[in-house]
Amino acid sequence: MAANQTLQRRQSQLTRGRLPSYAVWVVLAASVVLGAALSALIGFSVVGWAVITAVVFVVTATIVTAVGEGERRAKDRLVTFLVYGAFLLALLPLVSVLWTVLERGIPGLSYNFLFTSMNGVTGAVDNASVENGTPVLGGAYHAVIGTLLITFWATLISVPIGLLTAVYLVEYGQGNRLARAITFFVDVMTGIPSIVAGLFAAALFALLFGPGTRTGFVAAVALSVLMIPVVVRSTEEMLKIVPNELREAAYALGVRKWRTITRVVIPTAISGIASGVTLSIARVIGETAPILVTAGFASSINWNVFSGWMGTLPTFIYYQILTPTSPTAPDPSTQRAWAAALLLILMVMLLNLGARLIASMFAPKTSR
């Protein structure tokens, strides 16, 4: 009996000064009601209601906690509420963008949009855009092909260069003068505007092949200038976190350095490297300015990146908004632009999923 009384006394001491678990929810419900009332007084809106509710909840919950649990726990709860609030504020623009693109882009996604180009389409429905009596509103097939080809070639150029540069900086450079210079220039390249990369590629190929050279490969070179710094920095950080014990164990077994790098270091960091490559692709796949300078704009399908202008999804969106086919709503051009934006987001999402799949496939196997 005495032992039970002692245990109950200790439990009461541990729970003394604690608010019940439902107290925060009660405060939240009251804040929602009070926020709606205050918002109605100044002109009701969902945004105003949410802001007033959040302020009332944070202030009220902090005061209630200070009265019931003390000042120290009230400060802790206040900081917790602020952290959650910052997270929700950061999430709101993302949710808003996704919702808007889905709402306006889904109606435009159709077989016609995905598998036809804008070749010969000059208006919403006119004589130039009618085939066999059926109006052809045009689609983004040529832009999808151009985006995939240019991004593929840019990745093909950037990944080997960026990967080998990062390997040199981590495994061979060891802080020497050349490594410091490379690091400095990589940091500078990380912040250059995209239009500068486009002008550089256009000027380079104008010197080599003459003025006015605009092809998909020129655009790929321009995008690679933007991709390489991202690949280098992300790969460098991933290689740095590989434990030195793994390298030393391979060296102790007589494994050469290049083989240690290819068989031990890179496979260990492949997950982060894949994520970095994906981030670099996502960084450039939506660029518009360098594509306009280097690849121009095409309304027909072009499979050859070494000849002729090429269309991409970003330039397709730009021209659909810039040159609408109808002055009144609903405008087919605006619908095509939103559908292309949604398609671009889906492509980036698939790239991220593919990177995670590759990372899981090539990551070193662990056992308990």
TrEMBL record:
InterPro entries for this protein: MetI-like, MetI-like_sf, Phosphate_PstA, Phosphate_transprt_permease
PROSITE patterns: ABC_TM1
Family (UniProt): Belongs to the binding-protein-dependent transport system permease family. CysTW subfamily.
Cellular location(s): Cell membrane
Main function: Part of the binding-protein-dependent transport system for phosphate; probably responsible for the translocation of the substrate across the membrane.
A GO CC term attached to the entry: plasma membrane
Protein name: Phosphate transport system permease protein PstA
